[in-house]
Design brief:
The chain is an all-alpha fold. The protein starts with a helix and ends in a 5-residue tail after the last helix.
């Protein structure tokens, strides 16, 4: 799997070559598909990895793996943004890259559940949410989960916290966001901002989060009531838990001095 991730990477010069020769773009799309399949296997291995293992039980150090997947993610995002809606000649390359973005985000979301010994970077995940990856795209859901979990790992700067809060708020208040995506963003905000702000600089961020969640709570509760009927049992449980936790969170935040 490590070999696949490394060997399937290609530079911007090869990307330019693909623009000129249709057969090259098909080859590069195939490489992206191979990477996606490798990441899918890797994701399953991470989920089943022993929590006490320093190499996830698969011979790969988590920090090196995170950096490798982030590198693939950044590259795939550029191609996906350029070519997904392009001409018929390059559209398959963009579609393969978009699938790869999804698999990268899913892998990072699983990896971020492991107790990390370093502070992972957030910028590539934030770029995914700021890109044209739509709120109904599966990549958005995986990215929100990865970002929310990674943000909790290690000390964070005020800038990091503000960037994550802004990204999650944008998803929560966007009417186009799917219910599962909206719930994942709410869960992430609850996990990040449940405790009182440690410094005065964090108070405005906590206040923004509280105001945004207070604003959307009535509509979110209605969505859960009506849309949960179409959800599977596992998703129903997650939505009900999110709805209850949101009410508790807002009551708790009301007791904190955020002015």
């Amino acid at each position: 799997l490590k070999t696949v991730l490394e060997k399937c990477n290609f530079s911007g010069e090869i990307e330019m070559f693909a623009s000129a020769f249709p057969w090259a773009s098909r080859t590069l799309a195939s490489l992206y598909i191979v990477q996606s399949r490798a990441l899918s296997c890797l994701n399953n291995l991470i989920i089943d990895a022993p929590s006490t293992s320093s190499d996830l039980g698969i011979g790969l150090a988590p920090q090196a793996l995170w950096a490798s997947v982030e590198s693939v993610l950044s590259q795939a995002l550029v191609i996906a943004s350029k070519y997904s809606d392009d001409s018929e000649k390059l559209a398959p390359l963009g579609e393969a890259a978009r699938e790869l973005v999804e698999e990268c985000a899913a892998t990072l979301a699983s990896l971020a559940q492991v107790k990390l010994t370093w502070v992972p970077t957030l910028e590539p995940l934030l770029r995914v949410l700021a890109s044209d990856i739509g709120p109904t795209d599966p990549a958005a859901l995986h990215t929100v989960r990865a970002l929310s979990r990674a943000a909790l790992q290690g000390p964070r700067t005020v800038g990091d916290i503000e960037s994550v809060a802004s990204a999650l708020i944008s998803i929560v208040v966007d009417e186009a966001s799917g219910l599962e995506l909206q719930a994942a963003a709410i869960d992430g905000m609850i996990d990040m901002f449940a405790e009182a702000p440690e410094t005065a600089l964090l108070k405005p961020i906590h206040k923004r989060v509280k105001e945004a969640l207070t604003q959307i709570q009535p509509a979110f509760k209605r969505r859960v009531f009506f849309e949960r009927k179409r959800a599977d049992a596992q998703l129903k449980d997650r939505l009900d838990e999110c709805r209850i936790n949101l009410s508790r969170f807002l009551k708790y935040k009301a007791s904190q001095n955020l002015s």
